[in-house]
Amino acid sequence: MLIATLFPLTVLASTVTYDLEASWMRASPDGFERSVIGINGEWPLPTLYATKGDTVTVTLKNSLGNVSTSLHWHGIFQNGTTNMDGSVGASQCSIPPGSSLTYNFTLNQSGTYWYHSHLKGQYPDGMRAPFIIADPDMPFKNDYDEELVISLSDWYHDFTMDLAKSFLSVGNPTGAEPVPDSALMNETQNLNVKVAPGKTYLIRLVNLGAFANQRFWIEGHQMKVVEVDGVWTEPKDASIIYLAVAQRCSVLVSTTNSTGANFPMVTSMDTDLFDAIPDGLQWNTTGWLVYDDSKPKPAPKVLDTFDDFDDFTLVPQDRLPRFPEPDHTITLDLYMDNLGDGANYAFFSGQTYVSPKVPTIYSVMTLGEDAANVSVYGDNTNAYILEKGQVIEVIINNQDPGKHPVHLHGHNFQVVAREAADTGDAPANLTDAGTPGLPMRRDTITLWPTSYARVRFIADNPGVWLFHCHIEWHTISGLIATFIEAPLEVQKSLKIPDDHLAVCKAEGVPTAGNAAGNTVNHFDLTGENKSPAPLPAGFTARGIVALVFSCIAAFLGCAVIAWYGYAPLKQ
Ligand code: C2O
User: What residues form the membrane-spanning segments (predicted)?
Assistant: First the structure.
């Protein structure tokens, strides 16, 4: 089964219009039936198509009844339209049941993207699909006969926010993330992809998952990488694509010259990410390149080792050289720790993100000159002001033993350094040694365990842009920073449409003032949304672990111990 596609309602010169209505429906992609978020009565969601230069108008109607929603256009730069980015709390208010919101933006890029809800924990309930932007002048257009889109994803049987409740609780002090129930390709299993012999296909891979990075390979077929995250690259051979959540990769694949056999195509979740592997977990799913339906569909061979393609070696097809030394360096230390409620949170340099009372874009629009002062954005938004035209370098020190796919809105970035696992923090004096002169660019990179990366971009896109780990569990536990780029420029050029203000009103969310909603004293943050206080002195994360485990061991005494243990944690 190929994923459904939705062609635009109208194609007028260069305006594409989509009317989307979100509602709950039932689906069983892996044999287990559950409620999922569909669009226009369909799930999987339609793949959307547009062409570079188009103006896209999408009206999203929320007919979910019980929950708010939004749509984010992952990887789309939104030049001049930061308020169309779809990030709830940063660029808009959530859309309550019964309300509609129109997204309107112009595409000045091409390649493989996706769209998903950007309201805490919602997209893994099914609100996610590819978004393909064609380009009549694309570099490889003469090198293939046909295009295919294959999404890879993990899948859960429970609602994300139900899982999130136990994930982010004193009962899970180590922050073990919920393990997916299965893996999917094009939101199904046993996917059949019909191909013809002697042809070349451009296969657009998109990882729509919540947590699991995936390895993808096709038996008997070499892949040639030509795109990562909307950036065309010089072609490079690959046998296994390692695709983190939110990443995309296009590969050219030539089919064999006969219809004598069908070939397994595998996506396999990186189980290193899982704290424990539940009994019976099928972390792979297999599909087939089908040359002849009447021939058998063989089971895949078991691989002992993975020859992962290293995206760091890619060279962009436009050969854009490394940006000059940065004007502004932001260092983000990434780690996990427990707060006073006993739960395990994620931090960038000491702050765990909490959505402000006023979505950040509305603070930018209403604070006049003070919008250029970072303190108005509050203590828990991890806010940084970027000045127009500056070369920005972000150094991310991953001090956590897990892998983290980090994503920047509104830009792609050059990956000027990325180290292997266990190489520690970035050295104090960063040298150019070992950094590529023509670094690959993309909008999401994987940080390897306890190591670092340096990414660079030019602050040429005024707006409010989130920088976050794309593992949905970690966005829930606070692994988000807010980059506020040229706020005074944004004030001058941006107009907020009435329907955007109307959904805020319907949600009861203020659209003026600082992060706390204070319109009089911009530096008074009384009443702002805050993370829980730190643990009381002397009460360590280890103490919580011990408490929880002794609780499980001594079942009879559990109630008393829990009562005793919880009491001092109350604020
Ligand atoms: Cu795929 Cu913050 O987004």
Answer: 544-566
170-198: average pLDDT: 98
Same domain, 130 and 154: no
Same-domain status, 111 and 176: no
**Is 391 contained in some domain?**
yes
In a domain, 119, yes or no: yes
Element (H, E) at 264: strand 263-269
Say yes or no: 254 and 294 in one domain. Answer: yes
- The Å distance, Cα 424 to ligand 1 centre, comes to 27
In a domain, 518, yes or no: no
Domain that holds residue 558: 542-571
pLDDT digits (tens, 9 = 90+) for 67-101: 999 999 999 999 999 999 999 999 999 999 999 99
Domain presence at residue 134: yes
Neighbours of 45 (CB within 10 A): 28
Q: What is the CA radius of gyration of the chain?
A: 23
Q: Are 252 and 226 in contact (CB under 8 A)?
A: yes
Is the CB–ligand 1 distance for residue 409 below 6 Å?
Answer: yes
Residues 225 and 106 in one domain: no
Between CA 271 and CA 273 the distance in angstroms is: 5
Query: pLDDT, tens digit, for every residue of 527-561?
Result: 999 999 998 876 665 566 555 555 444 443 443 33
* Domain of residue 148, CATH code: 2.60.40.420
**Confidence check: pLDDT of 11 > 60:** no
Q: 10 Å Cβ neighbour count for 556?
A: 7
Query: Among 138, 172, 202, where does a domain finish?
Result: 138
State whether 288 and 339 are in the same domain: no
Q: What is the pLDDT of residues 407-445, one digit of tens each?
A: 999 999 999 999 999 999 998 777 665 678 999 999 999
The per-residue pLDDT for range 338-370, each reduced to its tens digit, is: 999 999 999 999 999 999 999 999 999 999 999
The finding on whether 466 has its CB within 6 A of some atom of ligand 1 is yes
pLDDT score for 400: 98
Whether residue 188 is found in the same domain as residue 247 = yes
Whether a cis peptide bond, with omega within 30° of 0, leads into 44 is yes
Q: How many domains does the chain have?
A: 4
- DSSP string for residues in 33-63: -EEEEEETTBSSPPEEEEETT-EEEEEEEE-
Among 316, 346, 381, identify where a domain stops: 316
Q: Which SS3 state, helix, strand or coil, does residue 146 take?
A: strand
Averaged pLDDT, 136-144: 95
- State which H helix or E strand residue 383 sits in: strand 383-386
Q: How far is the CA of 475 from the centre of ligand 1 (A)?
A: 10
Q: Is the CB of 72 under 6 A from ligand 1?
A: yes
Locate the ligand 1 atom nearest the alpha carbon of residue 409 and give its number: 2
